[in-house]
Protein 1
Amino acid sequence: MPQTADVVVIGGGVIGAAIAWRLAVGGASVVVADPAPGSGATGTAAGMLAPVTELHYGEEPLLRLNLAAARRYPGFVAELTEASGVSVGYRRTGTLAAAWDGADLAALRDLHEFQRSLGLNGQMLSGADLRGLEPSLAPGLPGGLYAGDDHAVDPRRLHAALVTAAERAGARLERQRVQRVEVDEHARGVVLDDGTKLIGACVVLAAGSWSGSTAGLPAGIVPPVRPVKGQTLRLRLDTSERLTHVTRGTVRGSPVYLVPREDGELVVGASAEEAGFDLRARSGAIYELLRDAQALLPAVLEMEWVEVSTGLRPGTPDNAPIIGSADVDGLVIATGHFRNGILLAPVTADAVQQIVLTGSTPEDVRAFAPQRFAGLVRPT
Amino acid sequence: MPQTADVVVIGGGVIGAAIAWRLAVGGASVVVADPAPGSGATGTAAGMLAPVTELHYGEEPLLRLNLAAARRYPGFVAELTEASGVSVGYRRTGTLAAAWDGADLAALRDLHEFQRSLGLNGQMLSGADLRGLEPSLAPGLPGGLYAGDDHAVDPRRLHAALVTAAERAGARLERQRVQRVEVDEHARGVVLDDGTKLIGACVVLAAGSWSGSTAGLPAGIVPPVRPVKGQTLRLRLDTSERLTHVTRGTVRGSPVYLVPREDGELVVGASAEEAGFDLRARSGAIYELLRDAQALLPAVLEMEWVEVSTGLRPGTPDNAPIIGSADVDGLVIATGHFRNGILLAPVTADAVQQIVLTGSTPEDVRAFAPQRFAGLVRPT
């Protein structure tokens, strides 16, 4: 017996759930299909909202989107908390990028200059400044960069809030894998693993790393996403030596970040490996994260071990997301968020809401249309 | 409604389960009380059976017991496997003690001399010998000591086999905590957490680290055990670079051992901390185990992370177990096995069987009677 909705969303991670919420609020009937919503990259992400300290040279178009996303966050969080009754752990802590040595400090100075040239908010710190802000950091760090606008959210709570808000607004969750998308000249819906058909006037593909392997998509439409494995650790400290800022560093060339939660949890991230769809935790990633984290924050070694989690970031050829209408009527793509999925969920959801409900694509995501990869030969 | 048995065993770890099996085979009716059998030190232990490489100067009486226990193992395993139908992962691999540097090699030479003076089987190895035996060890290790009689067993499978064999022989398991022991001039049994009385002609206290905190014992009878926290890691490697021998070393002063299982699992152990009854995994222990394990075996960093587990070794003032009749009729103590519980389970069970069924204490455990700690002032 087929079921019918205005929109079928493939994927119920933070991107799919945010889209479902915004569409349901906008009046659409929505079904989200996901066998384990939030268990992918969403559940592993540390939740940094860091357009400034995540800045990579040569990614200015993405930077503009990231900055817009960061500005959108407080309003989004307020509205979501109101709609769901769930606190999402949004903390306006600011972020410290601590230098490991003199060369690293010089690199942070260059980054700071680049940031200033783009009009971004940042401030160089001496070693004494750094210890003043975070007394439990390792002694001897030569200084750092303070980014007052880079904050953090708890992705697991964010996801729980989005699912609750979406369901309260009338969206429905189907806890099944999508077997295939049904497309002729128009997207028609999906078939679930148990054979159920979900017929939708519109299909939104928001399956993260699995977006490229969804069956039924015409060859030219398959988004070029690849899984980039990431591991994060969750530790816990119940005493007073807690960080109050998101803190990151590059210890002997190896990047690490520490995201403190209000309840004493500390998330340490993140490894990055091209290992296909392998979700097994690797001992070496755990070792390197602990090694680098304790170099910045010695108290890490006294913390309780809570868990390691592994997720797959959906990477794209230019590290930017893929957001927009595909060249098939009724098919919208929202994937490839790579390192920025938590930050970009609100602007992505707003954009997809507008695309689906009005047919027009908002200005701020036009640079990220699927068509920019047209003609790309996909690896087989 | 009280229940009655010939023997009530408090604690269903590897010691309590082995005792229950031997007593049931000997014709006694047996009840074992444990809320989570095998979840203590048994479930964390790596399973080295290492009287030679675990040798500590000044512990010769314990060494004699350990050697007797190692000799008893093959027969014990054969009988247990036959009785239970469960394979216990007993591997006669021999053990390599790899030297980290020249000073460490000199220390192994001294240990080798000491071993020879005691008539023990050991053999010094060059660096080339070491790599010949284990090609995946780190290059540059200067040599080591081969102990051909030190083997390993899988403690979790051993425990499963013991429980099965004990139950097949008629023993019964009560999955509850013991609230208190009932003792007047004679041990009378125990009261479980739900109030059930188990009346026994004999009570065997085999509760590992919790043996000292069992309520109802007269003050002079409480065994002086303290918990010594240990953490082990379970990793997995599915390729060819597997160890074939138990391998241990002391990396910059920090001891580590690697116990390979047939199925590709590798157990890395073990931390040692005096932290009371705190069972939380500590990040620093994980970090140090991975750091030292990868120094000996670089492939550790490529292995799958399976789990960390934490157990409490029951330590005693002289590091030796407490086995024998207490100064209360009908009360037998079998605890305090510290680092040697897996190795000593068979001889402990045989001894307790003889004590309970015949009243006589076998020669080989007389040095480990509870009375040796008489007059000891217990910490409060």
Protein 2
Amino acid sequence: LDERALLEVVKGIIGKDCCLDDCAVFSCNGYELVATTDMLHTSTDFPACMTDWQIGWMSAAVTLSDIAAMGARPLMLLLAVGLDRSGRLHDIMKGAEACCISVGTHVAGGDIDNHHELTIVSSGIGYAKKGRIVRRKGSRPGDCIGVTGVPGRAQASLSGYREFDRSLTEPKPRVPEGIALSSAGATSMMDVSDGLSFSLYDMIAANSCGYSIQSSKIPLPHGINPELALPMALYGGGDFELLFTIPAGSLPVQGVAYTIIGEVIPEREVLLDGIPMEKRGYEHTWDR
Amino acid sequence: LDERALLEVVKGIIGKDCCLDDCAVFSCNGYELVATTDMLHTSTDFPACMTDWQIGWMSAAVTLSDIAAMGARPLMLLLAVGLDRSGRLHDIMKGAEACCISVGTHVAGGDIDNHHELTIVSSGIGYAKKGRIVRRKGSRPGDCIGVTGVPGRAQASLSGYREFDRSLTEPKPRVPEGIALSSAGATSMMDVSDGLSFSLYDMIAANSCGYSIQSSKIPLPHGINPELALPMALYGGGDFELLFTIPAGSLPVQGVAYTIIGEVIPEREVLLDGIPMEKRGYEHTWDR
């Protein structure tokens, strides 16, 4: 049973619309608020090379990235920390606070518990003016497909390319990029933390169109043979870049480092160089 | 090192004001929003008698109780579930959703992970009109000290009085009570989940006055020898009642089951029947 199968159980109870986006969305007096929560723990989320400061940074970054993916501005972060050793708390909090400060927000509260295995849950709230939230749903045939930064760098680090270690351990949530893309008219958006392939298949599930991308246009980590680097970008996890769609007429978007990698198509399929793309990526599994 | 000592580490990093209340508070366009997060897991929070449905209910209740303690109305709940077995998810979600519905809100999203030990983090957001948030700080000498319901019932269950089991396993967050007390003019409030004693000492830490209560006034669980029941109310954990202060002139508060158990005093001490009260209660400890 994988994460996406478990999501079906959840949808049956709390409703399907609750599970379509990186954040839950609700209205508050002319603003739209978004909220999201992410659970991380040692065995599956924190490679052994990570310092406690980086673990704190990462825990904040996953949640801030979800807020960024909605085109929202973060309001605050809450951190629930299940500690295996109490001495770790200081550096974890420092790292989380540093990540928050880097995108103009802060840790506003949390909870502390003891735990057999270090477990951190970060929850975040963000806001945007009415109509400025960008969801996964909203892609229109003819829109350009874009991605910020260079996907595949986190996977490069996991594959042993040490020069990309900080991409894996200190990922930058793309908050200003998300806000700028929202302002520019992005029609749909999500983050690519499970890889480009999974993300495009998540997009198709939320829309009634399809996605066609060209491998030659995907920016790849420098200094790695492109034949090795391309699968990292397509199927590797751990990147915090934003995948978005936007009408060609809204380009270019000032102040954002992005690349157009393809086009939204009417047919309901995900194509890589014209042929159906393998649906594969970073995946949590249960009952192993 | 106990939870309160670890809080000092956190205060040094994110600021002292962040740790004074049951929730973080921030303003949004004429409203005040509150947010809180709570981590629970099998070994310390879920007695073996609990069903998965009750575990879900309890996980929602702790967070909704924190929102209630601010006099706020819950907007939504997020649930991050670290599952030891995937089959547990359905009943856990059902229980959490039932608790949310009982106080007029719902589960709006979350995260699922696999975990060695069942671990649930619920995060909630609530709101109130400007000026209607009740904090721990705000008690004034002469105010009455009140408590909702009957404290000590959860501890009675833990002590083997089976007739109180549902007080322990299906605690009711006092959301309507919190809102009514806020409207009536409560000057300070918190929930008593670590026991009356700890809660009064938490109140004194947030205020510049003291608290004097009378044991004869404390409502106690029925059918238990009062000599046994009183310590349950004072030092037992797991109750979700609200402890509050309110000017005598604002009484009675309609539609709320509460008891006045004492008075706010100018001296900075917590008194039980006129003598300093033992500071003791339910406490998580680390590095055992």
